[in-house]
Amino acid sequence: MSSSITVRTARRRRTLRMAAAALTAAAGLTLTACSGSDATGVRPADHTDTEASAESSGAGSSTGAQGSDAQAGPGAKAESKADSKAGAAAKQSGSGGAANGAGAGSGVQRCHTSGLKASFATGGDAVPDPNAGGSTTTSIVLTNKGSSTCKIGGFPGVDLKSENGGERWSLARSSKKFSSITLKPGDSTDFTVNLALTKEEKGFYQPAFAVVTPPNETTALTLKWPWGTLVDQRSATHPATFVNPIG
Q1: pTM
Q2: Where are the beta strands (DSSP E) in the chain?
Q3: Reduced 3-state DSSP string for 59-106
Q4: Any bridge partners for residue 192, and if so which?
Q5: For residue 224, what are the β-bridge partners?
Q6: Quick count: other Cβ atoms within 10 Å of Cβ 183?
Q7: CB 183 within 8 A of CB 107
């Protein structure tokens, strides 16, 4: 009787051990399976995170680039500021040089009325022929009386005035081409005025003064008229008395 109980007890214990072993094995499998499923679940998550990280890194690459620019920014900005300062200085220097070059090339500046002296050329062939009608000329000389070089070119304005100033004649201009002339201090240039002189007692105009306004100026130089009377063509479309350009 006791031996039967012993055998059953041994069997029960063995069964319990086997069940415990089975449970232990099952628990181990369960843990392994859980661990595997977790790992498998993590990988996609990691992959997704990696893509997200890559995208974020891409955005952060852009951001990182910006961040890098932001970090390098001060240097880059400083460099950029230095460059822009250098560029600005270069531009100023270039424009200054260009201005100086242009100034030098153009004779520094144009000739102003205040720096010029005007006179009629009266020697030799400069005297107009009173018998030549409309084919004679007179020359007006412009001299640089200033202390610096200047440039002049184009058509001067010439108005003829009567003795009392009541009758004024603004002379027309020719169609001749012109260029600029550089005058050093003391240098002179001239321009001619075509004249239609007359000895007739009717239909004439007697100037008393010639008012000369240099090109691009608003103030004038006044000269006494040294010649005779002109055919009065103040209302003519193509008068025979007209101004030619300087030089």
Answers
A1: 0.57
A2: 116-120, 136-144, 150-153, 157-161, 168-170, 172-173, 180-183, 188-195, 204-205, 209-213, 221-224, 230-231, 242-243
A3: HHHHHHHHHHHHHHHHHHHHHHHHHHHHHHHHHHHHHHHHHHHHHHHC
A4: 139
A5: 209
A6: 22
A7: yes
Q: Which two tokens stand for residue 209?
A: 């003064």
The DSSP H or E segment spanning 38 is helix 2-105
Strand partners, 141: 119, 190
The alpha carbon of residue 116 and the mean position of all alpha carbons in its chain are separated, in whole angstroms, by 33
* Token output for 41: 């679940």
Decide which of 136 and 106 is more confident.
Answer: 136
- For tokens 């201009």, the residue is 173
The pLDDT tens digits of the residues spanning 176-192 come to 999 999 999 999 999 99
Task: Report the pLDDT value the prediction gives residue 12, as an integer from 0 to 100.
Answer: 54
